[in-house]
Amino acid sequence: MHSFLQRIKDHIHTKDDTVFRVLMYSISNYPYVPDDITAELLKYSRQSQERRMAVLSNIEKAAFGEASIGEWIKCLKDADTKERKNYLNLVSNVELEKLFEHRSELEPFIPEKDWTSYEKIRNVSEEEELYMIYADLLQDLSAEYSSRVHDFAKRAMDELIKREWLTEEEAIGAVEESMSAPYLDYNGLLNIYALRYFPDDRYVSTLAKLLTVDEDLIVDETGNTLNYFQSDAVVDELYPLCKGDDSVYPIGLLSETKTDYALAALRNLYEESADDLELRELIVEGMCLHFSEEAIQEVEAFMEEGVFSGMVDMDETAYAYFKVINREHPDLMLWKSEAEDREEQFFDMMSQPPLRKPFEKVEKAGQNDPCPCGSGKKYKKCCGA
């Protein structure tokens, strides 16, 4: 088992909601969580609203095997109408063939029109036929973006790769061709997605260039794909980006690369960023989310300074970090109390009906930006979850 997973696996069963919440966030973009752990998390999601929210917003990248699928079906059966919709959002976590293996249990929950689309992709017998389906989906996306159509295009891409009708050379070639055009099209975007099946370090430098484009859909897909590599080459490409003007997203990716080399890079960045509080806060959060004792000196020093930007809930993060690595600190219970108070305020705010406001155009928040709802959380941990 990977050393990161080894460090956290025994704490997945914690009864401490604060620790559980941070653990969930630490694996939100890590694609190699074992099926037995994912199944346990789905089981825990039925325990309370807090656990359900923590799990559902952080396991969207987990591939569901048999154990997870079984628990997911139980969740669908037990949930009320509103919560069932949230569980159904995880349908993309299940391979196409597995959906059909469990069709009798899933038919009450998945719309018939979706089954029709799945069958169309699954039942093709010729390469040209599947490429025609894929081309039609690309055309629909180009006419008007739809997350539903995008998901079906990914299903078609999955099938192309499974049947060996798309090679890694063709995928990287399509990405590079799209990058040379005035703008990256949906075929380029889908081939970025395809490269997660081919995590070869040769492709890292090409993908890293896409992290600087001004298009969230491309940046997010690239980051998601790079998370499948978990290699030193990714760290080497991210490191200079972490010192640039747009450093928030690369630092997030560095924290999601759960290797000793990535942690060492975060520690080096901490030493080099003494004059930027927000940057240091993100770096310390990233170190904490590795749950390694190697970073204890930097985390302790930062918490001792006691000056925070509010970009990260450092009380919550530091408390969970110290609990997982089994280290004492005199402020441990103070951090827990502060974190729980903020979480209670957050749930109170989320339970209130929205206020009617005049129309106001606002800039879209990035995943690591403060949430515009005013909760004080990062967007990806709040309304963007």
Radius of gyration: 21 Å
Query: What is the typical, i.e. mean, pLDDT?
Result: 93
Overall SS class: mainly alpha
Separate helix tally: 22
Bin the strand percentage.
under 5%
For the report, how would you describe the main beta sheet? none
Please tally the β strands and state the result.
0
Oligomer: single chain
Shape by Cα distribution: globular
List SSEs in N-to-C order.
HHHHHHHHHHHHHHHHHHHHHH
Please bin the fraction of helical residues. Answer: 55-70%
Poorly predicted runs of 5 or more residues: none
How far apart the termini lie comes to 28 Å
Protein name: SEC-C motif-containing protein
Pfam families: SEC-C
InterPro entries: SEC_C_motif
Description:
- With 385 residues, the protein is mostly helical.
- It is 60% helix and 0% strand.
- It contains 22 helices and no strands.
- The protein has helices at residues 3-8, 17-26, 35-44, 49-56, 66-78, 81-88, 96-101, 103-106, 112-122, 127-143, 147-162, 168-179, 186-194, 204-209, 216-226, 232-241, 248-256, 260-272, 277-288, 296-305, 314-324, 332-351.
- Helix 5 runs antiparallel to helix 6, helix 10 (127-143) runs antiparallel to helix 11 and helix 13 packs parallel to helix 15 (216-226).
- It is globular.
- The two termini are 28 Å apart.
- The mean pLDDT is 93.
Features:
385 residues; mainly alpha; 60% helix
Topology record:
Blueprint: H1 3-8, H2 17-26, H3 35-44, H4 49-56, H5 66-78, H6 81-88, H7 96-101, H8 103-106, H9 112-122, H10 127-143, H11 147-162, H12 168-179, H13 186-194, H14 204-209, H15 216-226, H16 232-241, H17 248-256, H18 260-272, H19 277-288, H20 296-305, H21 314-324, H22 332-351
Helix pairs in contact: 2-4, 2-21, 3-5, 5-6, 9-11, 10-11, 11-13, 12-13, 13-15, 16-17, 17-19, 18-19, 21-22
